Amino acid sequence: MNEVSKRFEQLVKTTYRKFLDQGTILPERTPDGIQVGDALIKSDGPYKDIVKQGKVIWSTVSLNTVAIKLANLVAWNEDTNLQKEIFTLDQKYSKYFVDSKIYLDNYHRAINNNDDIRADILWTRYQDAKERAIILKDQAEHLARF
Q1: Helix or strand run (H / E) with residue 103
Q2: What residues make up the domain containing 50?
Q3: Based on the structure, what is the number of domains in the chain?
């Protein structure tokens, strides 16, 4: 092994140790999903489930950063209140995100049908749902930061 390889390996080990000292377990891809300690993130389409010892702890998580943070908290058996808060924000984000997509689709249908009043109402609802989704995503990702 040459000197660069040894230095790189040492850097990786040092970085990994720093993350562990901070209470962060780095995720690793496995055939079953993404492993974070003894917690597993299983993907179900756009949603993710957090599984520990075969039991689903959190289901239908939307945001990747939230899934990784929840898996870390579950793996360390830490701060259930923070877990609930992050999960709740993620679920609210998901609701408003889906609502915004539905309103936008219905807005386009109203435009195609020349129903201007309905289109105006749907555009307003779309804008509101989109803005709320953005705010909730920012809040959830802020809490999920390491």
Answers
A1: helix 80-112
A2: 3-143
A3: 1
